[in-house]
Write a structure and sequence with these properties.
Layout lengths: L33 H5 L2 H8 L6 E2 L2 E2 L6 E5 L4 H9 L4 E6 L3 H17 L9 E3 L2 H8 L5 E4 L6 H10 L3 E5 L6 H14 L3 E4 L6 H11 L6 E8 L10 E4 L8 H5 L8 E4 L26 H10 L1 H6 L7 E6 L10 E8 L7 E10 L2 E2 L11 H9 L3 E6 L3 E4 L8 E3 L1 H13 L17 H11 L7 H20 L3 E4 L4 E2 L22
Amino acid sequence: MLDVPKQRPELRTRDFIQPSNQSHILMAQFPYSRRRFLGAGASLAASAFTGPNLLLRGQNAAGKRLNLVQIGANGKGQSDTQAVTLNHNIIAMVDVDTKRLEEAAKKREKHHSESNAPAPNVPKLYQDFRKMFDEMSNEIDGVIVSTPDHTHYLAAMWALKHKKHICVQKPLCNYIGEVRDLHKTATEAGVVTNMGNQGRTYEGQRMAKEWIEQGVIGTLKEIRLWTNRPIWPQGPITKKIVECPTNLDWDLWMSSEPMEPYFEFDLPDGKKNKRSNSLHPFAWRGWWQFGSGALGDMGCHIMDSTFSILGQLIPEKIDVTSGPINDKNAPMWSHLVYHMPAGQHQAMTVSWHDGMKDGVPNKPERPPFMDSELAIKAFDKATSGMAFIGTEGTIFEGEAYCQSPVVWPEDRYTQTRIDMKAGKIKQTEPRLPKELQGNPQLHWATCITDGGKPMSNFDYSCPLTEFVLLGNLAIRSQESISWDRDNMKVTNVPAANQFITRPSYREGWKPA
């Protein structure tokens, strides 16, 4: 977020969110408490969502407490559980690590206590989601998946096999072929879907799109994106076979991947990882087999606004330079250039920078129109962010979600605020009420009970994930690639096509 001195209140974006004259758009300052909001399902459906109420286990769904399952219980799964547990029932929690599973259950109880909410129901605890579905499928309304990337697809497909609504953490999968298959299967199942990217729920992303479309920065000509990830080991890493912790079921953690002995890893020159030198529960992100590198971790956040602003287009070509890689691990830094076709805007490039290069953050050049002392300070401070560069100004956001964008130069931002207040800059994008902003899991659950489609439903988030993962195709091939979206293949580097689909699935994991 932009660090703005108190004497410059005109640079605070959120102070200038104005009420809309358009009744079909809900503003961020939704006046209801969460309890009043959830009790006003019919009104909300009429004003914010479309589509009929769904039926859940034979009963009318409006205003209902759902029976939900959390797969991947601790870490991100724990925060995803907290997002919905006060409003719905968590009837089962699944994690391959018994210690983390028990910790997650206790954290949920503590969250209810600290929220002055009634004690929650006691969920059933499982290590294997397949067994959980076998035993209690008929009790479940929806499933939240917050596991390592390589099991997103598997857990979601098991949920879809049982016709359950699903909310899956980003990235939806770490192979494009899985993304396509997941989208197709979910569409056929007719369930409510969502991806866990908070930025898609916020006001700021909509404002940036409206500003660009209504000429605030002139003609959009370039977009620059960056992140400080990876903050876990990548690059040259060697495996070290060690004894598996007794609380971890390594066979279940590997899931569909070919079984191998439990291992940790050594870093070059004997360096130590700040957390631990084990894959579980965090450092799997740097391994192609299990994660998807910096792109997979942050791309669906930081590229989200770009994907929306450019009309959900897919790049035609991606150029790449990066640090050293191998067939196991992503690099410690990369620089990608996505070549975007013309659509709602002219053809342009979208650049992506990540990691540390030569000991310094691998960031793009400071954008045009950010020449003042305050602008330079804001850019230098931003470890992740985005810049939408036009012919007359730049929209800048110094964090991942596009929650509070600003316009440079400062006089153009001042005029933008004036025009927003006067109604000259109109709200054309739908908003979520404040109670749902930053909470894609509750947004998903609300759509199940009250009807409608989440803003990051699979029709949107599957192509977004493909947009992101195309960068990894280029990184893994170490060459510029040309993408044939219709036929799902790289046309100029045949060897890159081996990275589109997962090489194999262990028997018993991929549902028929």
